[in-house]
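Supplementary Text 2. Reproducibility record for the structural model of the 336-residue chain.

All settings were left at their defaults, and a single model was retained for analysis rather than an ensemble. We include the record here because the model underlies the residue-level annotations in Supplementary Table 4.
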Amino acid sequence: MSFSPVKSTGKAFRAAAFATGLAAVAAVAVPTSSAATEEYPSKPVRVIVNSAPGGLTDVIGRLLTNKMSESMGKPMVVENRTGAGGVLGADALRRSPADGYTIGVVANGITSGPFLLPEVPFMADKDFDPIALLMTTPMVMVTSINSPYKDLDSFVKEAKKDPGALSIASGGIGTMTHLVAEQFQAEADLKLVHVPYKGGGPALVDVMAGHVPVYFDTLTTSANLIREGKLRGLAVVNDERSDAIPDVPTLAEQGYPGVKGISWFAMIAPAGTPKEILQRLNEEANKALESAEVKERISSLGGTIQGGSSEVLAELISSEIPRWSKLIKDRGITAQ
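Retained model, structure tokens:
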């Protein structure tokens, strides 16, 4: 049994038409990456900030995303997720869809916090895509203005007389305020009692009141208090003295060059976020950092605007992980 040429041509035509139709439907149903990027963002963007409202990470996050919202034409809605020194918020970001509609503003605790737990929940250099480094600020060792310690040397001498008799505050286990304190103890061969607080604010209040002798605070928080004579600066954790408090010497000047650590704040996304979207967010973040409003606010906080390519942030994260994971292991620090 054979088919006539006319019938055969008709069936071929219908098959071709059906295939063409399927291709057209598929093209409509699954937009290309470039098309999706061109319309990004087409809805509000959720921004997970892994600290409490009012903290420095939150202040920076809201400042930047408000400015970016204006430029991008869609709201960027901040959601504060606290707990475990910022690890819970970062982990919530890690588990979010990598579509550009959930991003995060975080501090440097993402490179150290995971190593405080029995099982490391994520690796900052593998489970997140970097967008931009936003701001950095040095740390400064402070004491009460009424403290008997007029300089760092007097504190060190007193601490060595009776190991374990003096204490040092922190904003919480595993925070930069804690890790720098641990570095300092190792470098100076001191044994101090660690007093962790639920945040830097309460720690600073008790140090100013003289309840705890010393504390490594962020320069953004302490600079004005030092200038106003409400707090005494003993040492800046930086390669050079800070213009904000030029009379306070660095730790390196005073014989402790091995103590390193800055507080930094960054914008990141879940790993696998489309590169075109990451690039758009990087451009918008840099644009916001260049605005007069943002510059003035960060300057008033004593911070240094960073910005630049996502590779700058990626390199910083990669360099921080081995340093802090080693310190945490060597000093036996845990979240408990």
